[in-house]
Design brief:
Layout lengths: L4 H7 L2 E2 L5 H6 L11 H4 L1 H13 L4 E3 L7 H4 L8 H16 L4 E6 L14 H18 L3 E7 L2 H14 L4 E5 L13 H10 L4 E5 L4 H11 L7 E4 L6 E3 L2 E3 L4 H14 L3 E2 L7 H10 L14 E3 L4 E3 L7 E8 L3 H8 L3 H13 L4 E5 L7 H14 L5 E3 L4 H10 L5 E5 L6 H10 L2 E5 L10 H14 L7 E5 L11 H14 L5 E3 L10 H14 L4 E4 L4 H13 L5 H8 L4
Parallel strand pairs: 1-10, 2-3, 3-4, 4-5, 5-6, 6-7, 7-10, 13-14, 13-20, 14-15, 15-16, 16-17, 17-18, 19-20
Antiparallel strand pairs: 8-9, 11-12
Helix pairs in contact: 4-6, 6-7, 7-8, 9-10, 10-11, 11-12, 14-15, 15-16, 16-17, 18-19, 20-21, 21-22
């Protein structure tokens, strides 16, 4: 009995086949015709292509179903044949593969733009991918491969549809241009982290570029700490020769780069447009003695659609803007008036002032939070991509946010309290990064030791931490109420910091109810920075506070002195 796809993935490099469309065109498929329909009308040709790739040494072949979703098939008036075409595609591949190769069900993009860039809704895309994925599982594929995605949100939707409606392993691949971004602006490290966190078993890249270009993509994907990466380049960039589209990258060149991919840590290696069984044979031969290289994990990061925010002891403190908050005077007015433009501008202003992300808390009596939140998420992506932190206590509202947000969100917050169980479940489901409060089941901790004990209990509840991560919040209480608690908070920060565990604080809590709040905030920020805090939720529009942040980090050795002189040196 052969090992499962996932078992094999952990043991060795898996070599995938090459282009299906290129080969079908050699057998007479003309431009503008539906290649997936050949599963019904010319199955013997599809079977022959699969056979050639297996004879060339492919460990895995992909079904001829790349465009067999309802939306794409409607262009050929074949939308009523989704299940039939996909089942036929699996049947043909399974017949050829037998026990000699794995069969993955290919799912490509819909060919439509998602709202707000186009008119395709989340629900329509989800249902189309769900229908195809269920048909592929019914047919008996070993895994699903979502590929050639150019929009991260469409890839997320396809991945959710596959994970929520099948029990199959899923590979999810994006396509990047020469600028190392997708058409909608996502860089490789963001795509990898988002898709892995959301549940993909393998993430990677295919199409769009030749071997050298995807080598650069692989280098960037490694920054995400994702353990299993797939790379399937085109056979070079196409050129026009005698009126035909030709790919010039040789099997030998692709094989040379396949070895380089393996040495960096790629787990799945194949080829895409323009490639043939000759390319697969060369890749397989080159990788015959290659062993799988383990990728170092352990990245604590969250993202927007385009921005990668890593929280690490070796990096400057991460600043999260606190101003979009219905507890504040300005925030309350904007939320009450449902002033989307005003809220978006307030978020962007915080980024201009030095924040890397924006915290959102818009819960307010009499205000329907869900539609307002949906408008905010869409608006922030439309008018300048802003990384968001969701301070949402209603699980139903939070799920809407996590489903719609086209990145890996930071959720503020989870804890040991029973009423946070559903939120922990959503963090796990969507692979979010989470702020972990070090509070107990019922009462707030008074000592550093209690905070530490609660933090360790929370960590154990989240095991395994393959898909999610936690940033510990050692709890800042108002000095007006708990004057002794500040020392305990600082001790807890130091404890977590010494063990390499990331920390975060809500700075303004320290001064609640007191005059001259900004003075207390600035003083405490300096103390927390020197004790090793990694991230702070604060008011970045306070320029003096941001100056204190720079100076504190210089004194703590977290940023070089030149950052201080660059900020404060007199001009010419």
């Amino acid at each position: 009995m052969k090992s499962s796809f996932l078992e094999t993935l952990k043991e060795r490099i898996i070599v995938f086949d090459g282009a299906m469309g290129t080969m079908l065109m050699r057998y007479g498929l003309s431009s503008g015709k539906c290649p997936d329909e050949w599963n019904l009308s010319k199955p013997e040709i599809v079977e022959e292509v699969h056979r050639l790739y297996i004879e060339a040494g492919a460990d895995c072949i992909e079904t001829n179903t790349f465009g067999a979703n309802r939306i794409r098939l409607s262009s050929y008036h074949l939308e009523d044949k989704v299940r039939e075409i996909n089942l036929a595609g699996v049947r043909i591949a399974r017949k050829v593969a037998g026990d000699n190769a794995f069969v993955t069900g290919s799912i490509g993009p819909t060919g439509k733009m998602l709202y707000p860039l186009g008119d395709l809704t989340f629900e329509s895309a989800y249902n189309a991918f769900k229908e195809q994925a269920m048909a592929l599982e019914e047919g008996g594929v070993d895994a699903i491969i979502i590929e050639t995605m150019t929009d991260l949100q469409e890839a997320r939707i396809a991945l959710l549809a596959c994970k929520e409606n099948t029990k199959l392993p899923v590979i999810c691949q994006m396509s990047f241009g020469e600028n190392l971004r997708t058409v909608t602006g996502t860089p490789p490290e963001v795509a990898a982290l988002v898709l892995w966190s959301l549940g993909a078993d393998v993430v990677g890249a295919n199409c769009s570029m030749g071997s050298e270009g995807l080598y650069k993509v692989l280098e960037r994907m490694l920054l995400s700490g994702v353990p299993f990466i797939s790379i399937q380049p085109n056979a070079g960039m196409p050129v026009i020769q005698e009126g035909r589209l030709v790919y010039l990258e040789t099997p030998e060149k692709m094989a040379d780069f396949a070895v380089k991919y393996a040495q960096l840590g790629a787990s799945v290696i194949g080829s895409c447009c323009g490639s043939t069984p000759d390319h697969t044979r060369a890749i397989k031969n080159a990788l015959d003695n290659a062993s799988r290289v383990s990728i170092e994990k352990g990245i604590t990061a969250f993202t927007s659609k385009t921005k990668f925010i890593q929280i690490d002891k070796s990096l400057p403190i991460t600043v999260i803007g606190e101003k979009i908050n219905s507890y504040t005077e300005d925030g309350k007015v904007l939320v009450e008036n449902k002033d989307i433009d005003g809220l978006i501008e307030l978020g962007r202003a915080q980024l201009r002032s030095g924040a890397q992300a924006v915290d959102i808390h818009i819960s307010l009596p009499g205000v329907d939070e869900t539609p307002l939140l949906m408008e905010l998420i869409e608006g922030f992506q439309q008018f300048g991509d802003v990384p968001l932190v969701f301070d949402i206590q209603d699980p139903e509202v939070l799920e809407v946010a996590l489903k719609l947000y086209p990145g890996r969100a930071l959720v503020n917050s989870i804890s040991l309290e029973p009423n946070r169980e559903k939120i922990i479940g959503l963090v796990k489901k969507y692979g979010a990064l989470a702020v972990g409060l070090t509070s107990g089941n019922a009462s707030y901790p008074s000592t550093a030791e209690e905070r530490i004990k609660n933090g360790e209990k929370l960590l154990s509840r989240l095991e395994p931490l393959d898909r999610i991560g936690v940033i510990f919040d050692p709890l800042v209480f108002p000095v007006s109420v708990y004057p002794e608690s500040i020392k305990e908070t600082l001790r807890a920060i130091e404890y977590f910091s010494d063990r390499g565990l990331p920390t975060i604080i809500g700075l303004s809590n320290v001064s609640f109810g007191l005059p001259k709040r900004t003075l207390l905030n600035r003083a405490f920020l300096s103390m927390a920075a020197l004790n090793g805090v990694d991230s702070v939720i604060l008011n970045p529009l306070d320029t003096d506070l941001m100056d204190i942040l720079i100076t504190s980090q210089v004194l703590a050795g977290r940023i070089p002195l030149r950052e201080y002189t660059k900020r404060f040196a007199p001009g010419p």
